[in-house]
Each structure stands twice: as C-alpha cells, then as structure tokens.
Amino acid sequence: MQQTNEWIFIGIFFAICWVFPAAPVIMAQLLQPKRPNKVKQETYECGIETIGPSWVQFKVQYYMYALVFLVFDIETVFLFPFAVAFNQVTLFAVFELVVFILLLGVALVYAWRKGALEWA
Amino acid sequence: MIDFLVSQGWSKDVATGVALLLGVIAVSSFGLVWVIFGIWLERKFAGRVQDRLGPNRTGPFGLFQTFADLGKLLTKEDITPEGADKFIFNFAPLLSVVAVILIWAVVPFSKEWIGADVNVGVLYFTAVGSLGTLSILLAGWGSNNKYALLGAFRVIAALISYEVPMILSILIPVILAGTMSMQGIVEAQHIWYVFIVPVTAVMFFTSSLAEIGRSPFDLIEAESEIVAGFNIEYSGMKFGMFFAAEFLHAFTISVLTAILFFGGWRGIGASVAGAGGDALGFVWLFIKSVGLYLLVMLIRNTVPRIRIDHMMSLNWKILVPLSLVNLIMVAILAKVFQPDYAGQFQIAANATGLGALLYQFFGVNIVAELPRAIALLIANLLLWVVVSAVLHRFAILDRRRVQDWVEPATVAGEHTASAPAPGR
Amino acid sequence: MPNVDVVQWIAFVVLSLLVLGGGLMVVADQNLFHGALWLLVCLFGVAGLFVMLSAPFLAAVQVLVYMGAIVILIIFAIMLTQKMMGQREALNDRWPVGLVMAAMAFLLTSFVLVLASNSPLLAGATGNVTGDTILKLGNSLVDTGQYALPFELASLLLTAAMIGAIVIAREEA
Questions:
Q1: Among residues C75, C41, C77, C86, which one has the least CA distance to residue C172?
Q2: CB 3.0 to 4.6 Å from B184: which of B179, B223, B326, B363, for a disulfide?
Q3: How far apart are CA B383 and CA B325, in angstroms?
Q4: How far is A92 from C102, CA to CA, in rounded Å?
Q5: Which CATH number fits domain A2-113: 3.30.930.10, 1.25.40.10, 1.20.58.1610, 2.40.420.20?
C-alpha cells in the first residue's frame, strides 16, 4: 500500500474527530435542564398547527439540478487524472480534452434551452 | 519526531503510532481553538462594519464573549421536536462539524507540517466537503418540519450546483502544478497562481462562498423566507455545532484559497529547512488566510442576499460556462507555453553578464515559468473584459425588461421588442 | 511490519462489516429514506476498501460521485414520489425468491473465483502496481493507442444520458 502512514493518519483522524462535536453535545446533555412538555415539543411552523405529514412531495426541478450536477461531477472525475498527467501529454491530447468539454457543452446548452436550469 | 522516539528506545511501530496520534490531535485542535478566537473576531468586525462596538463587556475587548456563549449553550435545554427522526436528528450536527474538520487533515501548514500529504489531496477535500451537504439533508429530514425540509432541499440544490464550478476551477491549479497533492501544489507555485489565473481564483472563491452558505449566498438561513432553513428545530448545543461548523468552514475556504492560489505557506524564509522555516511558513499561511477571511467577513456584512433563482442562474448560466471556457483556454495555453525547467537550468548554468544576473535575481524556476505566466495572465484579463462586457449588456437588457414590466404605460412605443424571452 | 498488517486486518474487517451491514440494511429497512442512508454506509465502506487497495483516487471518486451526488439524486427521486414516502409495510412479498437467487449468484461467483484462482487468465491481474497510478491513468486516458476513444465516448455517453433524462423529466412536467 502506497502512502500507508498518510492513510492511517486519516483513518485515526476520522475516528477521533467525532469527539470534538460529540463532547460539547454530551456535556450539554448532562448540564441542561430537561422539562419537556407537549407544547414545547411541537413542530415549529410559526405558531400555526402543522397540517398533514412534514415529508411532503417535491417538484421535479430539484431532480433536474441533481441530474445535471451528476453529469458534470462524473465529467470532472475524468478530467482529474488528465490534469495530473498534463505535463507529459501532447498538444493533441489537449485537443482531445477540448472535444470532451465541448461535447458536454452541448449537453449544457441543451439543458439551458429546454429550461432544465430554470428555477421555476 | 519518529526518529527521536526510536532513538529513545521505542519500537518503530509504536513510535509511528504515537507520532500519528499526536499529529491528529495537533491538527484537529488547532481548528477548534481558532473557532473560539475567530468568532470573537467575526463579531467585532461585524460590529465595526455596522458602526457599533461589538462585544466589549466580557473581559478585555470582549474577548471572553465566546466562552460566555459556550456557557449559555451548555446549560440551555435542547428540544427534540415531536415525531423527529431521533438518530438522524442528533447525528446531523456531528456530521456537519466532522465534514469540515476532516478537510484539515490534508492542509499543508508549512514545508514539513502537514497532517497527511495524500496524492489525491485536492479531490479529498472536495469529496469530504460534499459530506457537509449530506449533513444538511439529514438535519432537514430528521426535524420533521416542513420549513426545515424545504430549506434543506433548496440549499442542497444550490450547494450541489455550486460544486460544479468549484471543482472545475480546482482543476486549473492541478493542471498548472501537475499534481493533486496539496503540498505539491504549494511547492509548484513559484509564481502565485492568483497572478497567473485570476479568473479561476475569483471563481473558486465565489463558489466556495456559496458552499459555506454565507451572504450573499446565505439562502441556507434566509430567515425572512423559510424562517431559518434546515436548522429551525435545533436549539442549544446542537445548534451551536451547526454554527461552529459554518464558522470553521468559512475559515477553511480562506485557507484553501490561500493554498491553491496564494502560494500557501510560501513567503520569505519559509523554505528554510528546520523548525524555524516551518514556523515562518505557518505564519505566512496564517496571515494570508486571515486576510482572505477578512474579505469573506466584509462581503458577508456588506452584500445583500441573492434571490434563489438568481443564485441558480448565476451558477448555471455564468459560472459553469465560464469555467468550461476558462478550462479550455488554460489547458491550451499551458500546453503551448509549457515551462522547460531542464532547458532553462542549462541556459542558466551557461549564462553570463546580464542574463546570469536575471537568473540569479528571479531564480531559474520563475524564469522558466514566465512565458506561461504572461500568456495566461493576458488571456485571463481578456476573458475578464469580455465576460464583464457580456454581463453588462445582459444587465442592461434585464433592467429594461423589469422597467417595462413595472411601468407598462411608458413603454408602449419604446421597447416593444424586449418582450419576455420566447421559447422557454 | 507486523503492526501494519494488524492495522490492515482490523481496517479490512471493519470496512467489510460496513459494506455488508449497510448493504443488508438497504434492502431490509422499510423506510425508503433510511434505505438511502444505509446505502451511504455501504458506499463509505467501499471507499475505505479502495484506499486499502492502493487506489485512493477511486476512493475519493467513490465519496465524491456516489456519496455526494448519486445518493442525493436518489433521495431527490424518493421525494418526488410522494406515495413512497413514509411507507412502512414491505414493498415486495417475494423476498424469499430473491434471497435464493442472490445466494445462488453468490455461490456461483465464489465457485468460479476459487476455480479461477490458479488459471492463467488471472496471472496478469494480480501483482503490485508501482509508480504514480493517477499519472498512469491520466496518460492512458488520452493516449490514442490506449483509451482515447473510450474517453471521448464517455463524454458522448454523459451527454446522451443528460439529454435523455431531461427529455423524460420534461414530459412529466
């Protein structure tokens, strides 16, 4: 395994860093008064009683954004190894990159024209 | 450190383990100690901007204000609303802090001081940052509150959108440095990247501002529209954790901007080997980060909030296309003017007179990178001018449209052509 | 270094438990949203396993794309379909069939793997990777002799996927 110590460090870091947010929260649990009552526990919606379930249906727009984001996310994942190898590749390879990006530009333009990027 | 422990008769494995553990504690507690001081700084600064004094009663200059707040939060009852998804509700604030602290594991504080110099450092912090988005989702879901869920979904749609230009602009330093390691990127910045690719630096900074959810992109809170967004049901220390996470995140993006574009720990004397040079590097990084952080605070306290649809338009219709164009431009220019370090070293060795002086003064690396830097800087400035011109034009058109809409009587003969855009 | 081996072993066991437990809960939990969250646990374990296999790039991609994007997409999709929300009863009562099928697939795969462990087909697939793997990956992605065409096709595929998804989603709206 390459960079073993580095990753062990991150592993330990991940295990330990939960302490920092958890400690104050647990301390607060011990110190705070606990006097729950029915009104206090109610869901806060500006004083009006809640109607229906809170987990409501959402519109398709959110899904569209997530979708476009996913496509671009995957695209950049391809570009990162290329960027690392940038100093070794030829100019021709850079044009491959340009074609790659332009193809995605087409997708962006399509999404734009179809109104997938509108917050409506 | 490891060598020292081994020389004291420790076994190598144990020594490594202890050194790693101490490193973890040092790196992670630095961030948290800074939170305590930084919140005071933030409040003081906000006070000055708004022409008031800020905290000044608790201790000298109000320095103990944060401790007072901490005491209040510790003794305050936190309420779990009825019907909340208990585990998720309690887990979300922890995750939001952890997602930020984890970034610090790969921050190079100086030449030798770095938690873990992994070779995917840049991707690591982006990936960890996306965990923060999840914590907001969990908070919104767990609260069993319509406002919280609505706020959370809105925020997530915005956050994931702004991740696109952010990742695309991170690609540029990676291309220029040829590595994803954070330390490698700092080492490669013989000329600070902000002087080579200013447009990228601005885009990274802007999209990072959106990522931390601060004004002008503070839709994450938007108290006037969705009461308080995803953390409406949180109180006491759990709310405090969200607050601390946001604060620490704001400082973290300043540090990351300093590392990626402002040369990180580079500065006078920071490259000297040994603890002295390292300490100096740390000071340089700290100065740069605090400088950028002052900028973040200034923006927060002076710029009004953007509307959500404008925020999404800014991202998808300006920043994303711009970052794609920018990426193509930088890739081509950086390839054409690729620095030839070996060749320049040869020339430097044989140079005489004025040429030798030039190499002496700047250093060979900088001379080798000069053509690329100049070409990229000119291209960036051109891009900046073009983009500003286009934006200006659109702003004029948009303003006209709004005016038409508000006062239809005055437009009758004048701007009939500027009807709402067709074909949506 | 024996201690590193021990650390590796512990890490492997913990991560495998995360993957298996998470995967099991994805199908066992009857709240769809919780299922998506268990998927996160499972994917996180996979990312950890990638790190252990000296593929930190894939690990970062796993967290960035799968945990940061795909799970969010799934959750948005769940929120779109109101009828599925908060449903507590089992969605599918034919799980025994699925269990048998899964068990058979598992047995078959392990059988093939055990058989093939000595075959010449796997001879080139094992062994240590040396050098900077990300650099190699980047070079081979744009090398016309290697993966340049698949690289461009990937972009085309992404474009097609996005256009297709927009067409489908727009019809509904």
A1: C77
A2: B179
A3: 9
A4: 47
A5: 1.20.58.1610
Q: What is the pLDDT at residue C128? A: 59
Same domain, B160 and B99: yes
Q: What Å distances lie between residue A39 and A36, A42, A82, B23, CA to CA?
A: 9, 5, 58, 47
Mutate to test the interface with A, among C155, C156, C157, C172 (most CBs of A within 10 A): C155
- Give pTM, 2 decimals: 0.85
Distance between CA atoms of residues B394 and B388, nearest Å: 10
Cβ atoms of residues B247 and B38 within 8 Å = yes
Give the gap in angstroms from C-alpha B95 to the nearest C-alpha of chain C. Answer: 13
User: Model ipTM?
Assistant: 0.85
Name the average pLDDT for chain B.
80
B138 contacts C72? CB cut-off 8 A: no
Full domain range(s) for residue C74: 1-84
Cis peptide before B216 (omega within 30 of 0): yes
The position carrying tokens 């948005």 is C76
Q: Chain A neighbours among B 100-119 (CB < 8 Å)?
A: 101-102, 105-106, 115-119
Per-residue model confidence as pLDDT tens digits over B115-157 = 777 888 888 888 888 888 888 888 888 877 777 787 788 888 8
Q: Is the pLDDT of residue B47 over 60?
A: yes
